[in-house]
Amino acid sequence: RRYNVHVELHEPRVRYRETIMGADESLGVFLDMLEKMGRLDNALVVVSADHGESFENGLLGHAGPLLHDALVHVPLVIKLPGQKVGRVVDTPVSQADIAPTVLDAVGAPALPQADGRSLLPALQGHELPDRPVFSMAIERQSRFRPLKRGHYAMVDGRYKLVLHLPEAQYDLYDLQADPHEGTNLASAQPEMTSRLRGILQAHLEAAESTRQRWFAR
């Protein structure tokens, strides 16, 4: 029998996959080179990304105010020196944790004002306590003035809160029940929204205090 099959391709998705395949191939070449040089086993390798790419929620691209997981949920792969067994850490972590982790892994002093934490215990098989993870999309603004613009997100367990600062608007999503973040629960769950709002606001106030200390004229 003969069948006519029509496949409709979404060009931006295809191009994005091509880019990922190219990056993956280049990483493979680099790791192969380390192995041939006899340096891979003792190497500390960290692979991550600056952002994802959105094809949903009315946004096509990698920038914007929505801060959906398609943009902010990026890979983080760490290979420790001498590591032979792979592990998957399900606890959400932050790119702010990368520098403390690298310093801890090589036995260097910790950064005195780091926002992140070392993930080395989790990479060695120990439990990693939950803590909120933050992301942001900050519009260009002067470091010499208080934060008045930008969009800020916090993930705490299964819930994600997004603050659109110019409008003082909060969005709440249940990432477990609604992984594509299609339903804003801010009005339906006011207690959860208020609790997460307090945590996020406290961190923004701490950031503003630091900005004043460093840059106030």
Derived structural class:
alpha+beta
The proportion of residues in beta strands is 5-15%
**Count of distinct strands:** 6
Order of helices and strands: HEHEHHEEEEH
The span between the termini is 79 Å
Alpha-carbon Rg, integer: 21 Å
**What is the spatial order of strands in the main beta sheet?**
3-4-5-6
The biggest beta sheet is recorded as: 4 strands, antiparallel
The geometry reads as globular
Which parts are unreliable, with pLDDT below 50 for 5 consecutive residues or more? none
Q: How many alpha or pi helices?
A: 5
Structural description of this entry:
This protein has 217 residues and is of the alpha+beta class. The protein is built from five helices and six strands. The radius of gyration is 21 Å and the shape is globular. The termini are far apart.
Keywords:
6 strands; two-stranded antiparallel ribbon; four-stranded antiparallel β-sheet; 5 helices; alpha+beta; 31% helix; 217 residues; single chain
Topology:
Blueprint lengths: L10 H26 L8 E4 L20 H4 L3 E4 L18 H8 L14 H4 L9 E5 L13 E6 L2 E6 L4 E6 L15 H26 L2
Quick overview of this protein structure:
The chain has 217 residues and is of the alpha+beta class. It contains five helices and six strands, in the order αβαβααββββα.
